[in-house]
Specification:
Layout: E1 2-8, H1 22-29, H2 33-39, E2 47-57, E3 63-74, E4 88-92, H3 99-102, H4 105-112, E5 124-128, H5 152-166, E6 174-178, H6 180-191, E7 198-202, H7 211-225, H8 240-253, H9 256-262, H10 266-280, H11 285-293, E8 310-316, H12 328-332, E9 339-344, H13 363-372
Parallel strand pairs: 4-5, 4-6, 6-7, 7-8, 8-9
Antiparallel strand pairs: 1-2, 2-3, 3-5
């Protein structure tokens, strides 16, 4: 059974300090408090909805009586002569985030406002909260460590169910995703090769999670699981292992030049570490544990030949999660039937992997991607 409920969005997310997304929090942690508060506002034009899928069976065989996938939409569906929606764009978030991060003023002004590449007057934009994230079913809802193990295939399958069964969309104009969402975009292009006009994975690679990307994830997972305070998921306070693991995350995810600017002395280091601790204490460790584990089986390499749609990959040269020195995009993308890629050069202030949270720095590439799909530049009038 599929249950669909839509409601108008609240203009502001309640509880600005109680961030549910570790990535969203750290992305804004370096800003002034006023800016952080402002950027947690959700576009008031967004329509919120929930889809329920009964007796859902995950890939590893575990089941859940009911899986809820929350989603938001922006814009109006346009129907072609056959009555089919032809302007839908699926936008996918990163690990630990949710649709609220993608509906913030930062994203709206850079991508969805009039005249921007994903002008919501022109496109029907869909923002699902992936399972395990945001307002979708997740361990912290009550099951804790008894929550079924999900992986990226389950994430994409549930996104597909929302698009096709809940929203009744047979064909997507585009799929765009950042980080985990970018990895999901690679999967969409492989799994449903005829279902979209194009896919744009941002800050991601079409290879298994490996090297430093695997090591930091394993280090964080092990730090949580081996902490006596974790208590097999039944902790009553934030395990210290997660707080230490969060520090590992920050060292990996920020660019070296950005950290050099932000942490010039001991006082700045104290502030940085205190901010990290505060952020870690406002994240549910079970949720992040499951989210990190879900990436371990990701491996699009065997199915790259299935990709028939236009694919535009965007990475950043100062991203330490997906190091450009490995030359993965340069090796893989030219082998695709319709592949293009850009590695945007980092600067002294660009935040490495977190450049994904600054769409104003890369919106022009989204515009180039949409133009490649045959869309004329939108009018700002």
């Amino acid at each position: 059974m599929v249950f669909h409920r839509a409601r108008a969005a609240a203009s502001v997310v309640s509880g600005f300090l109680c961030f549910t997304s570790f990535a969203a929090h750290t992305a804004f942690a370096q800003s002034a408090p006023q800016a952080a508060t402002w950027d947690r506002q959700v576009n008031p034009a967004a329509v919120q909805g929930d889809a329920l899928f009964d007796h859902y069976r995950f890939e590893d065989g575990e089941t859940l009586a009911s899986v809820k996938i929350h989603y938001a939409t922006l814009g109006t569906p346009h129907r072609d002569a056959k009555g089919e929606i032809d302007n839908a764009v699926l936008v996918l978030h990163w690990t630990g985030a949710d649709s609220r991060a993608l509906l913030s003023p930062t994203y709206t002004k850079a991508l969805y406002d009039p005249g921007k590449p994903l002008d919501s007057r022109r496109y029907y934009l869909i923002f699902p909260d992936s399972v395990g994230h945001g307002q979708s079913s997740k361990p912290s809802d009550g099951l804790k460590a008894k929550f079924p193990n999900y992986n990226y295939n389950d994430i994409v399958d549930l996104q597909h169910k929302v698009v096709t069964q809940t929203l009744g969309i047979r064909h997507l104009h585009a799929v765009i995703g950042m980080s985990m969402g970018g990895m999901n975009a690679w999967q969409w292009a492989e799994t449903y090769p005829e279902m979209m006009d194009g896919a744009m994975p941002v800050v991601s690679l079409p290879i298994p999670v490996s090297g430093r990307n695997l090591l930091w994830r394993r280090m964080v997972v092990d730090a949580i699981r081996t902490d006596p305070d974790w208590k097999n998921g039944d902790y009553t306070e934030t395990p210290r292992g997660w707080i230490a693991g969060y520090g590992i995350l920050r060292m990996m995810i920020d660019s070296a030049p950005a950290l050099q600017q932000e942490v010039p002395d001991e006082n700045a280091a104290d502030k940085f570490l205190a901010t990290n601790r505060f952020a870690a204490e406002h994240v549910d460790p079970n949720d992040i544990l499951y989210s990190l584990k879900s990436s371990f089986s990701y491996d699009p390499q065997p199915g790259l030949f299935k990709i028939k749609t236009k694919l535009f990959a965007l990475n950043f040269s100062d991203d330490e999660f997906n190091p450009d020195r490995l030359q993965i995009l340069q090796t893989v993308v030219p082998k695709l039937e319709q592949g293009r890629y850009v590695v945007q050069q980092g600067t002294a202030s660009s935040p490495g992997h977190y450049t994904m949270t600054r769409p104003d720095l890369w919106a022009q590439h989204v515009g180039a991607f949409m133009h490649w799909l045959g869309d004329a530049a939108p009018s700002a009038s």
